[in-house]
């Protein structure tokens, strides 16, 4: 890497200022200076135990170590930092870190598949490339599929009050942890030791309204002789935040592209003349009948060039940006020291979360199977009828998607030492399970059609014929009416992962002149299960406009890992690890061997120069393997029509440029693992225990990435095959294997269809190993803590991450896309920096955290929107030895998402990068009982 870039990144971090947990690079020389005798006599045992107390278990290694800073960079967030920096939950903690530059889908993504879950994207890579661990063990996947296709881990089920610290390790870690550790590892470590009883109550809300929330947590710990016990309970409630709770998302008048022009409300109720493409004027009185809708804002509206309809400026605001929720979590941890050499242990975390969310008003339009058009026997023309159901019509009890998520993790095991030797052992069973029950009231296609259009009178070339009463459209319905033509769509999805493990470690296998050689070995056998059923009526098409994912599968996996830590000479040590994983499912076998090499060079105690190289893999997603047929609605370009029927018209102006089609997809049992390589190097300088600087370069290259050929790509290939050549004149053979497979994916209407003969109707897609991706960048940080005597203690610090390269290629032979230069608002952040000031004086403590998220492209791709900088702050006072009081605020300056004057789509900002929460304020009290 250009050395200048490393200096610039380090300088930027020093100029910013934010404290992180001080990870001082300790020298191992003082801890390893005592000779280790081969005599295992009892008088040597106390010294051996004392030495073991000096080592720590670090994320990314199986071997306990004396150094906290190792060959791979680690970011650590402590429980104290989580509280003082104003983070609301574990998702908020991770989403706010500079390493989390990628876009994610959360509760703002109205109508998404996983609106009730939260996740994180490290380094701009897919969320599934980040391995989420709890106490060092991989959590079960979320049962519903991210974007309807891939698996990921939900962060919503982890209670923040029980977190001791969180470690983030960027880059490949499969040689230690196995599958999915490509972008990195997030290890969430829960508390395992508490003195006495702590009761914490927190309550607050948002200054602009909505989202009122309360949280109570109780943690307790005690020791009875050989038994150590820790327990915790957390109860939490949060009200939803609606679009109408924010002044910049409550109305169509917020559209930044209006430039003073007239507000054109969304179309709530209309009848479209299919022969002319114009609206049928309902008259002001007809819209007046519905005027109570959307808080009394539904009105008679004219859209220039189209005609009159009924609409409301405020209809978009009736969707939730933050889910309403009630959650309860219980955590139990126990250790029984049976002998000096054997300890039995176990832990259990259980979480239940009940969620209410709303993706916006329910709606219906006529004859969805024929693109909305039917033949009106009363008028003799093609028509399309559209009807939104207002919240007043449906009722509050009906207009929600309800989810209940139950999850648990359990560990049971024993650990100890083989006699008086240096060999430690750890044998345990771990299981993680999550179950999601989803329920919503949704219109049935045949019943809602009959309610508004009456009985079908016949059909005309596949188009149904009705003789409906138009007054039906403009008459308010009741909640009973809505329930009458609807049914409950319910499904319970489930995942689990479980394994048994045997781990052996020896921090002093034998001695070399430079020190002791450490070793660790792991044997693992496990099983993974995924079940995502869909109501059979959804698959059969009984529900109007409703699609869903479905599938189920199980696979077994076996693994063996070995790790060595070798002091090469007094200044240089190496860490070498390797792992072999074997997955078996559906008669298929997928095996991968991965390895990692890390070097640590310490020319003197205060300086560490490090480097690492590693390979990694991600076994095929359970959803990609076992998903059954599912569908969705989208748009596509009919390249074959445009090139043959309108050859002199640019594709962007072709009449078949954006036609509505049905997309259909399914799993592929023959998928193989995604593979990756990563390497990096960096420096840690800690001239004093109070000052540390770090800078690291990382590079990750991913191959065999699973993707589905895009519908656009399939349609281009179909046109090339039918015509015999592409637009550049390169020949295509319609009888070739490529053409035959591509043509089989495209489905067209009959040639005698009166509206769209031979038009597109559906396109099938299938996941395959076809893509590759490369990302590299620099992370840097600095910490300084200063004792100012009577003025207390001041802490300053900084964290910074910048992506230098991010490229992607969908399929071999395609041009490589520079995602950082691609002028698309679907890009994440290129750089994120945080800065923090902590001040403790007497019984008072103050903290301010600033987070700057870099510029991103605007919606139109014509420029960039400004950086988004927010500040969190807290103030705490130790009222007595047992009572702490705190005032905490998130986004103190109430910074809204960056203004984008080209964003015409509601909610007028990029929901995958930003949020509209605004200023949050909490009051917190903690009482400690001995």
Automatic annotation (TrEMBL):
InterPro entries listed in its UniProt record: Beta-barrel_TonB, Beta-barrel_TonB_sf, Plug_dom, Plug_dom_sf, TonB-dep_rcpt-like, TonB_box_CS
Position of the signal peptide: 1-25
Domain TonB-dependent receptor-like beta-barrel: 384-887
Composition-biased stretches (Low complexity): 27-41
Subcellular location: Cell outer membrane
Membrane topology: Multi-pass membrane protein
Protein name: TonB-dependent receptor
Residue intervals of the TonB-dependent receptor plug domain: 69-185
């Amino acid at each position: 890497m250009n050395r200048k870039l490393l200096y610039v990144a380090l300088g930027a971090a020093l100029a910013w200022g934010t404290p992180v947990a001080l990870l001082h690079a300790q020298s191992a020389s003082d801890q390893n200076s005592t000779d280790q005798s081969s005599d295992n006599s009892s008088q040597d045992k106390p010294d051996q135990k004392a030495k073991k107390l000096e080592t720590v278990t670090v994320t990314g290694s199986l071997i306990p170590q004396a150094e906290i800073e190792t060959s791979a960079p680690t970011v650590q967030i402590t429980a104290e930092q989580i509280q003082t920096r104003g983070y609301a939950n574990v998702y908020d903690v991770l989403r706010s870190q500079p390493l989390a530059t990628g876009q994610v889908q959360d509760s703002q993504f109205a109508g998404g598949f996983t609106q009730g879950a939260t996740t994180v994207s490290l380094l701009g890579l897919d969320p599934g490339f980040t391995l989420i661990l709890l106490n060092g063990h991989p959590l079960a996947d979320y049962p519903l599929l991210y974007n309807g296709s891939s698996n990921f881990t939900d962060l919503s089920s982890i209670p923040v009050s029980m977190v001791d610290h969180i470690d983030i390790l960027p880059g490949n870690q499969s040689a230690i942890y196995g599958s999915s550790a490509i972008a990195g590892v997030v290890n969430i470590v829960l508390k395992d030791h508490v003195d006495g009883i702590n009761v914490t109550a927190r309550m607050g809300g948002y200054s602009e309204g909505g989202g009122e929330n309360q949280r109570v947590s109780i943690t307790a710990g005690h020791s009875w002789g050989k038994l150590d016990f820790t327990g915790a309970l957390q109860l939490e409630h949060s009200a939803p935040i609606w679009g109408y709770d924010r002044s910049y998302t409550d109305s169509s008048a917020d559209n930044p592209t209006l430039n003073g022009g007239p507000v054109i409300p969304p179309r709530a109720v209309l009848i479209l003349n299919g022969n002319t493409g114009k609206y049928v004027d309902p008259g002001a009185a007809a819209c007046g009948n519905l005027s109570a809708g959307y808080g009394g804002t539904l009105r008679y509206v004219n859209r220039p060039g189209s005609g009159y309809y009924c609409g409301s400026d405020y209809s978009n605001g009736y969707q939730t940006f933050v889910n309403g929720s009630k959650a309860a979590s219980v955590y139990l941890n126990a250790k029984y020291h049976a002998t000096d050499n054997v300890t039995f242990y176990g832990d259990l975390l259980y979480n239940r979360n009940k969620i209410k969310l709303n993706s916006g008003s329910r709606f219906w339009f006529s004859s969805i199977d024929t693109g909305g058009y039917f033949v009106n026997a009363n008028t003799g023309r093609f028509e399309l009828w559209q009807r939104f159901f207002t919240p007043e019509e449906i009722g509050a009890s009906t207009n929600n998607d309800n989810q209940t998520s139950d999850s648990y993790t359990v560990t049971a095991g024993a650990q100890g030492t083989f006699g008086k030797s240096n060999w430690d052992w750890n044998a345990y069973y771990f299981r993680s399970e999550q179950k999601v029950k989803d329920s919503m009231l949704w219109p049935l296609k045949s019943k809602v059609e009959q309610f508004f259009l009456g009985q079908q009178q016949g059909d005309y070339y596949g188009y149904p014929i009705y003789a409906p009463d138009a007054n039906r459209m403009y008459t308010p319905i009741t909640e009973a009416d809505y329930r009458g033509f609807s049914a409950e769509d319910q499904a319970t999805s489930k995942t689990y992962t479980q394994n048994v493990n045997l781990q052996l470690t020896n921090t002093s296998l034998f001695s070399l002149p430079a020190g002791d050689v450490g070793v660790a070995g792991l044997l693992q056998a496990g099983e993974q299960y995924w079940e995502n059923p869909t109501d059979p009526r959804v698959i059969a098409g009984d529900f109007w406009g409703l699609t869903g994912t479905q599938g189920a599968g199980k696979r077994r996996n076996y693994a063996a890992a070995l790790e060595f830590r070798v002091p090469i000479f007094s200044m240089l040590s190496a860490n070498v690890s390797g792992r072999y994983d074997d997955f078996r499912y559906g008669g298929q076998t997928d095996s991968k061997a991965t390895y990692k090499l890390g070097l640590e060079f310490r020319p003197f105690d205060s300086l560490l120069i490090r480097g690492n190289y590693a390979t990694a893999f991600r076994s095929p997603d359970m959803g990609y393997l076992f998903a059954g047929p599912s569908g969705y609605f989208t748009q596509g370009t009919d390249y074959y029509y445009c090139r043959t029927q309108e050859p002199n018209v640019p594709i962007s102006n072709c009449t078949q440029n954006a036609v509505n089609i049905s997309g259909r997809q399914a799993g592929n049992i023959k998928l193989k693992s995604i593979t990756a390589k990563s390497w990096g190097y960096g420096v840690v300088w800690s001239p004093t225990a109070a000052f540390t600087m770090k800078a690291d370069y990382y590079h990750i290259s991913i191959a065999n990435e699973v993707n589905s050929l895009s519908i656009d790509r399939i349609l281009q290939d179909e046109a090339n095959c039918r015509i015999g050549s592409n637009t550049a004149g390169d020949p295509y053979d319609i009888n070739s294997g490529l053409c035959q497979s591509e043509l089989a994916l495209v489905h067209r209407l009959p040639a005698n269809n009166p509206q769209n003969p031979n038009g597109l109707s559906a396109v099938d897609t299938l996941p395959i190993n076809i893509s590759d991706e490369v990302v590299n960048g620099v992370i840097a940080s600095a910490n300084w803590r200063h004792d100012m005597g009577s003025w207390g203690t001041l802490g300053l610090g900084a964290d910074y991450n910048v992506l230098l390269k991010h490229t992607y290629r969908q399929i071999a032979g395609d041009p490589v896309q520079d995602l950082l230069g691609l002028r698309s608002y679907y890009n994440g952040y290129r750089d994120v920096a945080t800065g923090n000031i902590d001040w403790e004086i007497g019984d008072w403590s103050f903290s301010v955290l600033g987070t700057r998220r870099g510029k991103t492209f605007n919606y139109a791709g014509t420029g960039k929107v400004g950086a988004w900088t927010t500040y969190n702050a807290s103030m705490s006072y130790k009222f007595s030895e047992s009572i702490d009081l705190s005032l905490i605020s998130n986004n103190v300056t109430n910074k809204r998402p960056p203004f984008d004057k080209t964003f015409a789509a509601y909610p007028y900002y990029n929901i995958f990068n930003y949020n509209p929460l605004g200023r949050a304020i909490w009051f917190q009290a903690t009482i400690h009982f001995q």
